[in-house]
Amino acid sequence: MSDMSHSLAETIPRMEALAVEQGLKFFPVDFELVPPSFMMEVAVYGLPVRMPHWSFGLRWIYQMIQHRMGHSKIFEVVFPGNPNRAYLVNTNSLHENTLVVAHVLGHADFSRNNIAFARSQDEVGYHIVEQAASHAHRIEEVIKEFGEQRVEQVLDCALSLEPHIDTQQPFNRKEFPRKHVVEDKPAAEGFHARYADLPGEESAPSEPRVSNAPIPPKPEKDLLWFIAHYAPEMEEWERDIFLAVRKEAWYFQPVFNCQIMNEGWASYWHSRLLREADFLPSSMYVDCMKTHSDVVSPYAGDQQVALKLNPYHVGYVMWEKIIKEQGVESARRIMEQEDDFGFIRNHLSRELADDMKLFSFNAKRNGEIKVAENSLDALHENILAPKFNFGAPRVFVEELKNDGTLILRHESGIDGRGLEIERARKVLQYIAAVWKRPVKLLTLDGEDNEAWISSEAESS
């Protein structure tokens, strides 16, 4: 065992005991030291072992370029569950990994007690790392049986729809009823209803008619679920892939929707735990706090402007103010009940925004950047806009026609997002390859007129 791993092995249980003493409540954490190459893959794939797809290769190239240019350093990756799984880079210094241990314990407290995380894990299970590995193994078997090209076609479709889930519905849903009852005779109303039950007024009961129910009965947001259950000729292995992608997307949604809160909470607690850790040498504490300053930096010097939000910085400053003014127990109640949408709208004040020099801006394609209106509401929505629906346009299943044509509708009025027409058509082609029937999408054109996009080569 190396000196660093030996020192960490001694530090981890003492830091965990201190966290419990400070009021943190978390499931056990399994810490593991790994090489930078492994950490890079985990950061790209989102999980230690995940289904194979070419899109992850593109993400890996981007992450590697960022890393080599000095724009990205990965200190840790933690996967909530019972137990939590945390990976630390074995080339980081001892003081960096000591800070990371404290940071991870903050994440573990957040994920056990925040309602969005708790619901997600109650629905999909507390062992996503093992589940994702099982999904990957299943897909490898399918590739051997049906060929890489066919499997990649299905993965193209499923992963392109990854944001399109509906966590307001139960994870395990029942299919829609295929039939519904229609009464031939309408119920009496008004004057007639008052005398319908008088003696001598009885009439023969009407025979109810059973007819085909519309599918879906109302607009359906969960595209992965709908296609998996209603694609006319979908094979079982194709359905398995869609449901595996849906389960992993369901797991990741609270991670995405609570990023500012979660990173800020972990940053606040790593700072506090390190300050209270009297078992650390003073020189290590100083080094840890230098790293802390880098982590929660707004990424701008005195004469610079940061155009990219650092969630560690914003979350840390907000939690620090809330705890200072309202106390830890009040902060815990906020942590337990809210996500980033409520956190930003309810707790990012004008004063805090000004202190952090946060502002809204508009960026044009030619590179020109202009500061937008100095409204707090506008700033809130500017921060939150990329978070709606995983950052993807909101699209619903509107109708399944008798001939099997799938009709989708883009609800641009809800999220204000336009569509990239060629990209949207490509996704429709992915869907059509699995659906095996025409797929059409109703959206708005550049002049706010309704327009159709089709999976076929020419829009109709």
Automatic annotation (TrEMBL):
One Pfam family from the record: SpoVR
Protein name stated in the entry: Stage V sporulation protein R
Signal peptide: none
InterPro entries (UniProt xref): Spore_V_R, SpoVR_N
Residue span, SpoVR protein-like N-terminal domain: 7-374
